[in-house]
Amino acid sequence: MKELFSYLWQKKKFWLLPVIIILVVIGFLSIVAASSALSPFVYPLF
How far apart are CA 46 and CA 42, in angstroms? Predict the structure, then answer.
C-alpha cells in the first residue's frame, strides 16, 4: 500500500485515490456481508 500511494504521489495521479478507496470499501463490505445474513442480497450486485 505504501508503494502504491508513493507512486500516486510522485506521478500526481490523485484522481485514482477515490477509485482505490471505493474498491477497498466494497471489498471490506463484501467480506463482512459474506459472513452475515446479507450475503444473498449482496452477491447479485457483483
Answer: 7
* pLDDT tens, the chain, 46 aa long: 788 888 888 888 888 888 888 988 888 877 777 776 766 776 676 6
The whole-angstrom separation of Cα 19 and Cα 24 is 9
Question: How far is residue 42's CA from residue 32's CA, in Å, rounded to a whole number?
Answer: 10
Check if the beta carbon of residue 21 is closer than 8 Å to that of residue 14.
Answer: no
Question: pTM for this structure?
Answer: 0.57
Count other Cβ atoms within 10 Å, centred on residue 29: 13
Q: What is the C-alpha separation between 42 and 33, in angstroms, rounded?
A: 7
